[in-house]
Amino acid sequence: LLGQILDQWFESEPLKATLATDAVIGAMASPHTPGSGYVLLHHVMGEMEGRRGAWGYVAGGMGALSQAIACAAAAQGAHIFIEKAVCHVLLGKDGRAQGVVLQDGTEVRSKLVLSNASPQITFLELTPQEELPKDFVQRIQQVDTRSPVTKINVAVDRLPSFLAAPNPRDGRPLPHHQCSIHLNCEGTHLLHQAFTEATHGHPSSRPMIELCIPSALDPGLAPQGCHVVSLFTQYTPSVLAGGRPWDEQARNTYADTVFDCIEAYAPGFKASVIGRDILTPPDLERIFGLPGGNIFHGGMSLDQLYFARPAPSYSGYRSPVPGLYLCGSGAHPGGGVMGAAGRNAAQVALKDFRQL
């Protein structure tokens, strides 16, 4: 249990709760859920520019990272097709993957196929089911993809001014504006309470909020004097109590709750908002192809990690279909902006390619 680990090392409850947020981020779990300690480890095991456990903003926004990868691939001769949806994986008579078929009917032939879509999309939607073992299909169907995350993107006409550290008159960003700001995290009991509400189908009345202001470091993201605020919030169930859908009213009601919480820490925040984009778990699934809205393509619980990710006997990136590989967050070691799954899968695919 994460709570036991934090109790051994720290005395300050706000510090323990702040660290605990990285143990439940993207997970339908509380700090008291068995195995939650691993999710914290997962978020601090990497490094950035030699600094262990560090995170950073991508200049130009997260899309700039995708563009950088695309440019590097194109420089090596890769051909990139954008806005070309894949209909299914193309298989030969011998059952090997031979490419993909696009929705417009175009066939793209290849000797190997690597998919960074989720295991659910890769194996349950894009791969002919008769080519997969029944127990494998059942395992993929049973992957826990519950997600508590609602992402809210906000445009504001001025920097939030927090009661704990008010803004200077010149409006320049302070150090805390350039970091990750955690709200409603004064105690781990608050996180557990927020989790409990969601398990009963109700969005948290006092949500866990991780607030970032990337424009404080990257002014090009917003007009002069304005800023973009990224809110990573939980807990919100995928399906509301009574089977109610996440309609526009439900979205706005929850967003208003989040904004009321921020207002208590930074009076004037609500008045500064000039636009907002609310993405509930169903929205994250529909727009980004995240199963259940899960940012990791599946829960990072101990039964879905290491040799069991995405399924026992298939953690080595190869799939039951020869020539088809899984290289996304649903593969070992799981989610996060680190590229480990892709790098590992590429090495396996290259080894097989040389033997063709």
Automatic annotation (TrEMBL):
Location in the cell: Mitochondrion matrix
Gene Ontology cellular component list: mitochondrial matrix
Main location group: mitochondrion
Keyword DNA-binding: no
Pfam families to which the protein is assigned, alphabetical: Amino_oxidase
Keywords: FAD, Flavoprotein
Keyword Flavoprotein on entry: yes
Alphabetical list of InterPro entries matching this protein: Amino_oxidase, FAD/NAD-bd_sf
GO molecular function, one term: oxidoreductase activity
Domain Amine oxidase: 34-164
Family: Belongs to the carotenoid/retinoid oxidoreductase family.
Function: Probable oxidoreductase that may play a role as regulator of mitochondrial function.
Description of how the protein assembles with itself and partners: Interacts with COX5B; this interaction may contribute to localize PYROXD2 to the inner face of the inner mitochondrial membrane.
Name of this protein: Pyridine nucleotide-disulfide oxidoreductase domain-containing protein 2
Species name: Dromas ardeola
Lineage, opening ranks: Eukaryota, Metazoa, Chordata, Craniata, Vertebrata
